[in-house]
Amino acid sequence: MPHILKYNGMAIAENIEFARTVVSQTLGLMFRRHIPPGYAMVFVLRKPSSVNVHMLFMRFPIDVIFLNNEKKIAGLSRLNPWTGHKAMKNIKYVIETHAGSIERYDLSIGGQMEFEDI
After folding, report:
1. DSSP annotation of 21
2. pTM of the predicted structure, to 2 decimals
3. A Pfam family for this UniProt protein (predicted)?
4. How many CB atoms lie within 10 A of CB 26?
5. For residues 118 and 100, what is the distance between their CA atoms, to the nearest angstrom?
């Protein structure tokens, strides 16, 4: 069964990759040339923590969605290759997806994200 990422009940990504290990979370989307349509990478942290997202070795801009323990949006950011950086506290999930997704899906702080966290 494919994983689907939804925002307030609306599908925004049908191709989800989960980053759960230290290695997969450290690498993230680094070194990739592009990501496929409908793609999102979901970083699953062991517990709500402070996070730092950087854009070193990235070739394209991305939108980053920061979620709390209830999968509600706590922060949103558009980050550019090599120069982007964003830090936040008390975050349980980080979602990296196509640049422009925040505007395209009218994402906002407090909105509810949905996905199977298996």
Report:
1. S
2. 0.94
3. DUF192
4. 9
5. 27
Burial environment of residue 24 by CB neighbours within 10 A (0 to 12, 13 to 18, 19 or more): middle
Instruction: Estimate to the nearest angstrom the gap between the alpha carbon of 82 and the chain centroid.
Output: 17
Residue 61's CB: how many other CB atoms inside 10 A? 15
Q: Contact 109/92 with Cβ under 8 angstroms?
A: no
Q: What SS3 state is found at 19?
A: strand
Q: Where are the domains of the chain?
A: 5-91
Element (H, E) at 15: strand 15-19
pLDDT, tens only, 15-47:
999 999 999 999 999 999 999 999 999 999 999
Within 13 Å, how many C-alpha atoms sit on residue 111's CB side?
Answer: 17
Structure tokens at 102: 């925040």
CA dihedral (91, 22, 36, 105) in degrees, to 10, reads 0
Is 1 a residue whose pLDDT tops 50?
no
- Angstrom distance (rounded) from CA 104 to CA 57: 26
